[in-house]
Design goal:
Number of helices: 21
Radius of gyration: 32 Å
Helix content: 40-55%
Strand content: 5-15%
Oligomer: single chain
Largest sheet: 3 strands, parallel
CATH class of one domain: Mainly Alpha
Number of strands: 14
CATH architecture of one domain: Orthogonal Bundle
């Protein structure tokens, strides 16, 4: 008999945006499903009606879509399955694995306070489980509110976890837990187990903060006569300070990184390395490579560290890997937002823009870096970086002489091509007594053209600026040097 097709699920609560930890969990479920020919399902756990919102649900969808994590069947909404949850709770009553508890919240709070006063931990004492059948029937007939509690069996509960190996809990440490509230709504553990059984989930892969829920859920599976899935509990994600990742560490929502110039391919690659290693010191991977390399043997037990600088580095690697023609669609909106150009203007000069991206992306880590570097190629006015001025234009009179001579040479070129520019400017450096130190011409010229000390090759910059704008930039620089003003316009 062949093994069942793997069925995995990502089950977020729509009470906030898709955060980094949830996205990592979704990714590992998705990778497993894709690697082993399974199905990746999405369940929205919207049973907390007070906190669940359509906006959060939409943000979860958008975050998964941006990351490229497509689910395989219709979305399941947990709130639509209350009748099944109640029916499963009734099954537990019928087979004797659960009982009605008539204790009120006030009574439980009073007993808890009494236990604390004695320096004892509170554990439900099963007093309602000792009621006679007739007494239970009488209270139900009288309309007395009740919860349904699961009766913890004796012994231990254990499982082989794909991440942590064998985990075992003594059942005596777990109190009889509620599975159905007085209003007939399910508690988390019952709803999850009921849904996972109905969805035929074979592997439950989630954060290891759920480990304490697992023995309770295993007991519910057995009490409902269902086959157990395999469990895998992923390590938590910590900030650089070693504490659980939270808003104090900066952006934690996936959508934040989408708007910070991070590419989805880089985000997915980065998330994959938070708790998993493909081995052989491999770090930069395409989606296809991650699927090929994914294996549960590479899942790690220790907490993963979220390093924003590593994410930026990863993003830079992916920007270098992606053909510039494909990057256009992702960078154009940022160019528009910065007021540098419209989509129509960039499309009209697409070949030129792609050539510009070829140059800029190798020095960039984010889309925002590309936009910042692109400024001099679009703006009229440019500002000169103070550090660049201090370093490259220290001798204002001497710098003005160099730039004026470079302008004359460039203006006389018959062909605005890199080879002709290089030949002319190197010859100028020789005539000015710089010998083979042509950088004495190139560096001041770079600041004049871009306002920056670092840029792509000077001849590429000249080519992309075009003759008229390049000469105008040199004129602006000369005006700045001679007048001592702070910025210039072309």
């Amino acid at each position: 008999m062949s093994a069942p097709i793997p069925r995995l699920r990502f089950a977020p609560s729509p009470t906030g945006y898709l955060h980094v930890g949830g996205a990592r969990t979704a990714l590992f479920n998705w990778l497993y499903a894709r690697k082993f020919g399974g199905q990746f399902l999405l369940r929205i756990e919207d049973t907390d009606r007070a906190r669940s919102t359509e906006e959060s649900t939409r943000a979860i969808f958008e975050g998964l879509e941006w990351l490229g994590l497509a689910w395989d069947e219709d979305v399941v909404y947990q709130g639509a399955s209350f009748e099944r949850h109640r029916a499963d709770a009734q099954r537990l009553l019928d087979n004797g694995t659960a009982y009605r508890c008539f204790c009120t919240q006030a009574e439980l709070a009073e007993r808890r306070a009494e236990a604390e006063a004695r320096n004892e931990s509170f554990k439900y004492d099963r007093r309602c489980d000792r009621l006679s059948t007739d007494e239970v029937a009488r209270r139900v007939a009288d309309g007395m509110p009740f919860t349904i509690r699961f009766r913890i069996p004796e012994g231990t509960t254990s499982w082989i976890d794909l991440v942590h190996d064998e985990i075992e809990f003594p059942n005596k440490d777990i109190e009889d837990f509620i599975v159905l509230r007085t209003d007939g709504t399910p508690i988390y553990n019952l709803a999850v187990v009921s849904d996972d059984i109905a969805m035929r989930i074979t592997l439950v892969m989630r954060g290891d903060d759920h480990i304490s829920n697992t023995p309770k859920q295993i007991m519910l599976y057995r009490a409902l006569g269902a086959e157990l899935p395999t469990f895998a509990h992923l390590p938590m994600i910590h900030g650089l300070d070693g504490k659980k990742l939270s808003k104090r560490h900066g952006a934690t929502a996936v959508s934040d990184y989408q708007h910070l110039g991070i590419l989805p391919s880089a985000m997915v690659n980065f998330l994959a390395l938070l708790g998993w290693s493909p081995g052989n010191d491999i770090e930069v991977m395409t989606q296809a490579q991650m699927i090929e390399l994914f294996d549960t043997a590479g899942l790690q037990k220790k907490a993963a560290i979220f390093d924003p600088k590593k994410l930026e580095w990863m993003n830079g690697q992916h920007m270098s890997l992606i053909p510039s023609d494909e990057l256009v669609a992702r960078i154009v909106p940022a160019m528009e937002a910065a007021g540098l150009a419209t989509a129509a203007e960039l499309e009209a000069r697409r070949e030129w823009f792609v050539a510009l991206l070829d140059l800029l992306k190798v020095r960039a880590r984010t889309i925002d870096d590309v936009v910042r570097q692109a400024g001099p190629y679009f703006r009229g006015p440019i500002d000169y970086d103070p550090d660049a001025v201090a370093k490259q234009w220290k001798d204002r009179a001497g710098t003005a002489e160099i730039l004026a001579a470079a302008r004359d040479v460039l203006a006389q070129l018959a062909s605005w091509e890199p080879a002709a520019m290089e030949q002319a400017l190197r010859a100028l450096a020789e005539r000015m007594g710089f010998g083979d130190k042509a950088g004495r011409v190139f560096q001041p010229l770079r600041v004049a053209l871009t306002g920056l000390a670092a840029s792509p090759g000077i001849f590429d910059v000249l080519l992309l600026l075009g003759r008229s704008r390049a000469l105008a930039r040199i004129d602006d620089a000369l005006g700045y040097l001679r007048a001592g003003t702070g910025s210039a316009a072309s």
